[in-house]
Amino acid sequence: MNEKGLTLSQLVLLIVVMLVVVLVIVPRIFNYIVNSENVSFISNAQFYVDEVRKRLTLTEGFPVDQNATVTYPISELDLDQKKKKSVYGNPWVDEKCYVVTKNIGTMESPKYSYSIALQDEKGYCMELTDEANLKKADVKTEGCQIPNFSEVAAND
């Protein structure tokens, strides 16, 4: 007889091999997606810092005194609709999205540092993080402790 098909043991072995492949590959794909979203989130944060830097340059709005700060809300940037949402497609929470610029130099020789906080309506967030640490910043899915813009701006 010339039978075509698989024996039961061959079928079970095939299923086991496929399960192992799925169990190894699916988590890697999921981690890749999460990491790429986090990288995009951080890229957006750097974009917002750069936009605030440009805006302060154009308006001469940099802090002058040593250790003085200027807090600038993301909502006041002239952005297209796509940039008004997080990489997860959620609108930003205006009170929780801002850049803090600080004069870490002197009045005679100013030097500026930039920090940014971001949170979207679904809770994806990044606590106030120095621009230099953005590449290392952890994007959280919830639980950020971000003071409201009005509280931070009151200390300027």
Q: Tell me the count of domains.
A: 1
The N- to C-terminal Cα distance equals: 89 Å
The main sheet orders its strands as: 1-2-3-4
Number of helices: 2
Give the gist of this structure.
The protein has 156 residues and is α+β, with helices and mostly antiparallel strands.
Characterise this structure.
With 156 residues, the chain is an alpha+beta fold. It has one domain (8-154). The chain is built from two helices and four strands, in the order αββββα. It has helices at residues 8-59, 149-154, and strands spanning 69-73, 98-103, 112-119, 125-130. A four-stranded antiparallel beta sheet has the order 1-2-3-4. A hairpin with an 8-residue loop joins strand 2 (98-103) and strand 3. The longest helix is centred in the N-terminal third of the chain and has 52 residues, at 8-59. It is elongated and about 90 Å long. The protein starts with 7 loop residues before the first helix and ends with a helix. The mean pLDDT is 91.
